Structures are given as C-alpha cells and as structure tokens.
Amino acid sequence: MTNANDTLPPPPFKIKMVEPIKLTTLEERKNILKTAGYNIFNIPAEKVYIDLLTDSGTSAMSDNQWSGLILGDESYAQCKNFFHLQSIVQEITGFEFVIPTHQGRSAENLVCFALNLDETKIAVSNQFFDTTRANIESIGTKAHDLVIQEAYNTSIYHDFKGNMDSNALEDLINQNSNVAVIIVTVTNNTGGGQPVSLQNIKTVSNIAKKHKIPFFLDAARFAENAYFIKLREKGYSDFSPLQIAQKMFSYTDGCMMSAKKDGLVNIGGFIALNDTNLYNRIKERMVITEGFPTYGGLAGRDLEALARGLNEVLSEDYLKYRYQQLQYLGNRLDTAKIPILLPVGGHSVNLDARRYLPHISQSEFPGWALTIALYENYGIRTVELGSVMFAHQNEYQEWVYPDLELVRLAIPRRVYSREHLDYVADSIIKLYKSKDRIKGLKMTYDPGLLRHFNALFEPIGE
Ligand SMILES: Cc1ncc(COP(=O)(O)O)c(C=O)c1O
Q: How far, in Å, is the centroid of ligand 1 from the Cα of 378?
C-alpha cells in the first residue's frame, strides 16, 4: 500500500504566470506517433498535453529565481554569481571545491576523466543512471549495479529500496582489486526514485575508506532523499532537510549533481569535492570541454538561478508538498489496483508494465508499448525504463532483459496541479480496462548506446 493520502493540501505557492496547453485529437496523435517512428522523444512538445517524460530541467522557477536572472554577472571569469553558488554548495555539501558544469552528464564525464577510469577498472553503484553508465562504459570501464534485491520486486515494501547491498559490495571489492570508484545515486532514479538511508551511505563510506576507494554521490535528487530520511529513518525526524543533506555529503569524497532536478533550474550542474589533485585535473580538462571553471558552460544568470534554487529546494514546506503530490497520484492508482512500483518514489510514480500488460513479452517492449498507448489515447507523455533502455546482448549475442519493466511518470517540480494529476490517474485507470487491445512493438532502428533516445519502432500486427 502507498501511504494513506486521499487528499492533497494546497501547494505552498500560487501561480503568477501561465503556459497554455492543448489536447490534440486522437487522429492527430495517431499521425504524430507514426511520423515520430513511435518514439515519444520525437514528439513535438507542443503536441503533448501532460508531459511526464522527465522531471529534469522541467521545474517552474520561482519569482525569486527569475529576479535573480537580472543580476547575472556575465563576466568571463570569477563572476559574482559563481561566488554565490559556491558558498551555497559549500554550505550544503561541506566540500571546498565547487565546479559548475552545464548539466549532470558533463560532471560525470569530468569525474571519470579525473579518476583515470579505463578498461582495466570497475565502477560500482547502487544503480547507475543511464548517462553515468554510458560515460563509464564508453571508456571501457565495467559498471556494476549492486542495489538491494528488494529493489527488483515492485510489490514489496522497503523504506529505502535505493540502498546498496553492502555485503555484495565487500565481496566484489575482495574479488577485484580494480574497483576505482563507488557512486551512490540519491534517490535511485533507475529504480523508481527510491531513497537511500543515511545508515547505508555510512556503511558504504566505511567500506570505501577501508579499501581506499573514492566514494561519490550522484546527488541529482539529494533534497528529496533527505526528506525521505527525515520521514523514515529513526533519529532524524527533528533534523532539517539541510542538516540531513549535510550528513549525507559528509560521508563521501565528492558529488556530481544534475541541478536540473533538485537545483530547481532548467539547465545546470556541478561537481563538489575536497581532493586538490582531482580538482586540478578537472579544471584543466574542463577548459577544453565546458569552459572556464567559474562558469562551466553556464551563463552568470544560470548560476544565480541555481544558487537560489538550491536554497528553495531545502524548504520543508516545499519538500512536504512534493512528497504528498507523489503520494496522492500513487495512491489513486494503487486504490484502483493499477500495478505500480511500491512504495512511491521521490520524483516519479512508476507503472509496472509487465503486470499491466502481461500479454506482451519483453522482446516486444511492453513498457514502450504502454508509453505509446498513453500518448495515443490521452496525450500524456511518459518514459520507459525497461527493455528499450536497459536490455543488452551477452557474450553469446543473446538478449538479456532487465528485471524491471517500468513506465515512469516523472512529475516536474511546481508545474502541475491536482487536476492535472487527476486527469493522469483517470486516464491510466481507463486504459487499464482495455489493456488487452494494446500491442507490442518491433524495433526497426537500433542505434546502440542510449538507444531509447533515437530508436525507431513499428507496432506489431498493423
Ligand atoms: C540520477 C541522475 N544522474 C545523472 C543524470 C544526468 O543529468 P543530466 O540530464 O543533467 O545530464 C540524471 C538525469 O536524469 C539523473 O537522473
């Protein structure tokens, strides 16, 4: 069961500006899908009614952030907004060196470079996000996911389904002397936005220290993770989200952050760490790829909006509302017996496509088929975290399918109202009644790495 939550208290903000959205006709959407090669990434955003493709870069900024844009100092080096951002990141993370980047994946790329990852090494995570995995694997390093087994069962409850299996981590390190980095993703996006406990971060930290392995947080959703700790982990209910976040970072050697999530901005990221050697390597490298280390591919105004967003995201009123919004949607679906991943995560409600569409085998992409059906019938855009994104071929060229076949309904921050969520819930419940009519898909173009972005499909049997 989700937490009982049939009502949704009003948001702790009111609306100052509106952006019109329009529902197209069924006929239009059928044509749009055909033209898009049945890939929801190819659908023009204007033709989407409710866009739950991602919570990344889709936040509504506050009046405080928008007014900060006017104060952007666009000097090439050492602009004043960098110092504002630096002081806030230092306060939250406790790290000395703060390096802005244009988004999370460039932070990942720079950290991989600085750590000298190569084909002889192994990187370990609870679960790597797809861009992190791609950054690691594209240089030949092996990427291992060691999330706890409960994470792979959508119907059992666990307070911290994003936790890393620390025994498996010890075993892996004991069997391999070449583990070069441990990265814990908070919250675990790939596993449905599930949180990681402070105790687990501490245990992983002790193992990393014992074996002298650098330990980083992928901190894209650090504030949401901190709020789960406050609600669920014994001993932290009286701590502020900031204090919990500070504790989370204190056990690690550094972090990479896609600020497009809990930075409450539309673009941006950063790296923060203490190690002078790593810092120098990143600084030298980034002038070739990102820009000077005080702007890292961002405008001064972006740095200011991010500094302000990082303050706002730690507001307890905001985090409580965000949590309740997700619980509300999850609860509406769970009450209607729609198979979802339980408990509900921090930024997304996830449909279990294998249980929603049991008549479609993983080789015919049930998760993807569900995303197509939701768009075709209701104009709702979601994303598959399943066989298109994660299936791979083993050394015998056989396809290995992921344990989870999810359709993620990622909720943008401060964007949609309860009425929008009700439309989404009603649509999914209605679609479930005629689910047997949904067909699988054949992939007609497979681009390889990160294939969900560019793959093309045809419906089977049409
Ligand atoms: C956990 C996690 N890490 C890294 C990234 C990559 O960040 P970006 O999209 O800013 O490159 C994402 C993006 O969704 C993410 O969810």
A: 27
Neighbours of 205 (CB within 10 A): 17
Query: Residue 77: which of 366, 344, 300 has the closest Cα?
Result: 300
* Contact by Cβ (8 Å): 108, 141: no
CA–CA separation, 153 and 114 (whole Å): 36
Separation of CA 258 from chain center: 9
Name the one residue in this structure whose structure tokens are 């890393």.
164
Backbone angles phi, psi at 319, to 5 degrees: -65, -35
Residue 450's pLDDT is what?
82
Choosing from 41, 52, 53, 56 the residue with most ligand 1 atoms within 8 A of its CB, the one to mutate for a pocket test is 56
pLDDT digit string, tens, across residues 61-111: 999 999 999 999 999 999 999 999 999 999 999 999 999 999 999 999 999
**Helix 241-250 / helix 198-210 crossing angle, nearest 10 deg:** 20
Our answer on whether the CB atom of 129 is closer than 6 Å to any ligand 1 atom is: yes
Closest-CA residue to 318 (of 346, 349, 348): 346
Q: Which domains does the chain have, with CATH numbers?
A: 26-55+315-459 (3.90.1150.10), 63-313 (3.40.640.10)
Contacts with 416 (C-beta within 8 Å, 6 or more apart), sequence order: 50
pTM: 0.95
CA distance 307 to 64: 11
HSE-CB at 202 with a 13 A cutoff on CA atoms is 7
Bridge-based pairing of strands 50-51 and 380-381 is parallel
